[in-house]
């Protein structure tokens, strides 16, 4: 029990540092979308077009109210609805070029800041951080099966 408590304490400490990085990187995006809306865009960016219900589940949103949130995202030009090629009754949600650009801009800012922090570590320390964070992301179900295959995990 002590080991997981110690690991939880260390993870909380790291989460504060990462929260600062995230807040700084997403600040300009939050001028045009809300944080939950941005999370939807990030999921679409990594997973590709998804059915509405699957997307709601992936972001842990209530499916009955998620459609209204998607209306705002679509109206803002960040995502679009289209019929599924396999079933006209099925609606797919995908990123627009504007949505992809917004996610890419935030990701690039975040990447630069994280890289600057990691540059303060030795290469073996960087590898330890990478391995630990990858395991944490897997445990948190942050990766899809396809993403794990690409990573060779």
Topology summary:
Layout: H1 2-26, H2 35-47, E1 50-51, H3 52-58, H4 63-75, E2 79-83, E3 91-95, H5 97-118, H6 123-139, H7 145-151
Antiparallel strand pairs: 1-3, 2-3
Helix pairs in contact: 1-5
Summary, kept brief:
The chain has 153 residues and is mainly alpha-helical. 68% of the residues lie in helices and 8% in strands.
* Strands, count: 3
Gyration radius, rounded = 18 Å
Distance between the termini: 27 Å
Share of residues in strands: 5-15%
Structural class: mainly alpha
Coarse morphology: elongated
Q: Which bin fits the share of residues in helices?
A: 55-70%
Give the uncertain stretches in residue-range form: none
Account of the protein in words:
- This protein has 153 residues and is mainly alpha-helical.
- 68% of the residues lie in helices and 8% in strands.
- The protein has 7 helices and 3 strands, in the order ααβααββααα.
- It has helices at residues 2-26, 35-47, 52-58, 63-75, 97-118, 123-139, 145-151, and strands spanning 50-51, 79-83, 91-95.
- The chain has a 3-stranded antiparallel β-sheet.
- Helix 1 crosses helix 5.
- The radius of gyration is 18 Å and the shape is elongated.
- The mean pLDDT is 88.
């Amino acid at each position: 029990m002590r080991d997981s408590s110690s690991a939880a304490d260390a993870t909380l400490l790291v989460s504060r540092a990462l929260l600062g990085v995230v807040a700084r990187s997403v600040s300009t995006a939050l001028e045009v979308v809300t944080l939950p809306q941005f999370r939807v865009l990030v999921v679409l960016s990594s997973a590709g077009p998804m059915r509405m219900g699957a997307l709601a589940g992936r972001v842990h949103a209530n499916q009955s109210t998620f459609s209204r949130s998607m209306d705002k995202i679509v109206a803002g030009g960040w995502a679009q609805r289209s019929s599924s090629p396999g079933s006209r009754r099925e609606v797919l949600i995908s990123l627009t070029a504007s949505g992809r650009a917004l996610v890419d801009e935030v990701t690039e800012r975040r990447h630069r800041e994280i890289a600057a922090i990691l540059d303060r570590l030795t290469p073996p320390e960087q590898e330890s951080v990478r391995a630990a964070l990858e395991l944490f992301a897997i445990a948190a179900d942050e990766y899809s099966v396809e993403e794990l295959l690409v990573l060779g995990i």
